[in-house]
Amino acid sequence: MIPWSAFVYVEWWTRAHRNHRFSLWIPLFLAWLLLLPLVLILFPVVALACLFVRVNALRLYAAAWSILSSLPKTRVEVRAAGTRVLVDVA
Amino acid sequence: MNDDRKSILELLAAGKITAEEAERLLAALEARRDSSPANSAVEDPTPAEGSAAGRAQVPAKGRAKYLRVLVEADEHSTGLKGGPTTVNVRVPMQLLRAGVRLAGLIPAQAHEQLDQAFSKHGVPITLSQIKPENLEELIDHLADLTVDVDGKDENKTRVRVFCE
């Protein structure tokens, strides 16, 4: 399953020890919908390029799809200098 | 010759699996037969294509799902004030496998250039040797491996890489 949404959370502390936080839910499925026409246009272009460099286009599409579909549940969290950033792909 | 053995040899003859993979599958088949001789004629261990040999080695239960990388560095290491810097990354194993599959599509003529570029930047790896079955072996070992790296004197940086 391709990622449907991503969650970004940023938290930071000011010098006055005040806590600020900011969270953002990104609906990736909307991005996929917007990108779909572009992907359809790029499909034959990529296939031609694959022919040129002698790479199996179907295997390339399959590998790209498997990368996309294995992105969910990826999580990156960084805490540094009183700031915390969290990115969670769902 | 039983059906299982025959199908493995047919896959080898068709070029769908390599000789090493066929050897592993046959060994797995033998081990399976040894452990349950009564069931060997009933069960169907016919391998699927591709990485079947790799799967035959890995037990189904307890298979790692994520690669975790935890990095903790103190202020002296990073030069950043406000406490230690920590990085916590969770990557699905499927993503690593997909990455290896994508790397397998890199044309052979580009391997040499990439290997040179890697070694130039201090990563002495041979790209052509990274195969899905090698990754499975690496994952098997990472499942119970924890790497702790401590810097010298005041530079305390701890890196832990493990599977879960």
Features:
heterodimer, A: 90 residues, alpha+beta, 4-stranded antiparallel β-sheet, 4 strands, 34% strand, elongated, B: 164 residues, 3-stranded antiparallel β-sheet, 7 helices, 3 strands
Notes on the structure:
The complex is a heterodimer of chains A (90) and B (164). Helix content of chain A is 43%, strand content 34%. Chain A is α+β, with helices and mostly antiparallel strands. The termini of chain A are close together. Chain B is built from seven helices and three strands, in the order H-H-H-E-H-E-H-H-H-E. Chain B has helices at 3-13, 19-35, 52-57, 75-78, 93-103, 108-120, 132-142; strands spanning 66-73, 85-92, 157-163. Chain B has a three-stranded antiparallel β-sheet with strand order 2-1-3. The longest helix of chain B is centred in the N-terminal third of the chain and has 17 residues, at 19-35. At the A-B interface, helix 2 and strand 3 of A face strand 2 and helix 5 of B.
How would you describe the shape of chain A?
elongated
Please give the oligomerization state of what you see.
heterodimer
Q: Describe the biggest sheet of chain B?
A: 3 strands, antiparallel
From the alpha-carbon coordinates, what is the Rg of chain A to the nearest angstrom?
A: 19 Å
Beta-strand portion of chain A reads 25-35%
Q: State the domain count of chain A.
A: 1
Helix content of chain A: 40-55%
Task: Draw up the topology in text.
The complex is a heterodimer of chains A (90) and B (164).
Chain A lengths: L4 E9 L5 E9 H26 L3 H13 L5 E6 L2 E7 L1
Antiparallel strand pairs in A: 1-2, 1-4, 3-4
Chain B lengths: L2 H11 L5 H17 L16 H6 L8 E8 L1 H4 L6 E8 H11 L4 H13 L11 H11 L14 E7 L1
Antiparallel strand pairs in B: 1-2, 1-3
Helix pairs in contact in B: 1-2, 5-7
Q: What is this structure, in a nutshell?
A:
With 90 residues, chain A is an alpha+beta fold.
